[in-house]
Amino acid sequence: MTLRKYLLVLVTALFFFQGSFAQEEQENMSAEEALKQANIENQFSTVIKKSGRYQEYKVVKRVWMDQLKVNTLDTLKSLENSLATSNQRIMDQEAKINELQQTLSTTNQNLASITEEKDNMSFLGIAMTKASYKTMMWAFVAIILVLLGFFIFKYKNSNAVTLEAKKNLAETETEFEDHRRRALEREQKVMRKLQDEINKQRKTGAK
Fold it and tell me: Which residues constitute the signal peptide according to the record (predicted)?
């Protein structure tokens, strides 16, 4: 048998002998001793056992009954005090729980307020969340990009129109220059013919 089993058997035997000894001591205890030492249940049991018998009745000494009454009242008073103490402790614990719940509620409110302040911001005096601010900024960027694309398109279109106008102007100037040159040539031819005719008339008149 191992040491652990020896210890288990020894402890079991000690509890058994202790219980037997306590029971034997209680049975050998007098009513006066029981009324001074034992609990209420054992006091009643001892008083009943130690009382005399008359037919089917138990004859209990008046002094035992008085002492048992006092002990019972003391026990009840002690129980009432313990109950009052327990109730007060429960009330204190409930008050503490309520206080902790109030503190927790206040903490949650403060946390929610801090979170809201963290998530919110002011833009041009308008309170808005950071998500709304980001959305608005991206909307502004999108609008600016659209306007930029529109102006680039208009610029390219205007540039194309300007180039076309310059081209047409250059062609017109070229045509005008050609027309002016041809007109000048025709005028010079006419002038030469006129001069030749004048010279011819002069020669004819001189003859």
Answer: 1-22
